[in-house]
Amino acid sequence: MPTTKCDVVVLLSGSGSNLQALIDSARAGDSPVRIRAVISNRADAYGLQRARDAGIDTAVLDHKAFDGREAFDQALIERIDAFSPQLVVLAGFMRILSADFVRHYAGRLLNIHPSLLPKYKGLHTHQRALEAGDAEHGCSVHFVTEELDGGPLVVQAIIPVAPDDTPETLAQRVHSQEHQIYPLAVSWFAAGRLRLGESGALLDGQPLAASGHLIRP
Hints:
Elements: E1 6-12, H1 17-26, E2 33-40, H2 46-53, E3 57-60, H3 69-81, E4 87-90, H4 99-104, E5 109-113, H5 125-131, E6 136-143, E7 153-160, H6 167-190, E8 194-197, E9 200-203, E10 206-207, E11 213-215
Parallel strand pairs: 1-2, 1-4, 2-3, 4-5, 7-11
Antiparallel strand pairs: 5-6, 6-7, 8-9, 9-10
């Protein structure tokens, strides 16, 4: 494990529950992760308060103040790079990122998505899983590429769908798994164990399966 910490910048738009899980994990004495800054496109995002409470630098960049996605993303790149992170983590950042942004952080940009990708890219994943009658549901951490929710998978947590589940109960159980697998994936990257190779994600130098590392709690 590296003796120096891996600097991470987290992007978010909302409550920041995944950020809190990352903060809690990074506080462990042997964690290779240092959350350098949290940036939001919304000044009222509660995740910013979580960061401030943890003594982490914060910044707000309002996308509505920019003339289009590309202009916002370029300003966001400049704000992120001021912290010189080795990894950028999307934790409920509700913006579709431009190709230029994604290419700039190729191989060092992670996202978490509330479905078992490649199923249910986009929104309303829990409702869609129920409507399809799926027996299993879950969440996925993946490297970000130019394809929306389509980058190489790192780790997935799989949970059973109960007969009486609603989108709300399913979301609650999926969230609890997100809080486990996202810090895990980030720590793998920070420790030098996880990287993006030419043909997909590599863990300890070995290609991960197309579905990533599977966890069944």
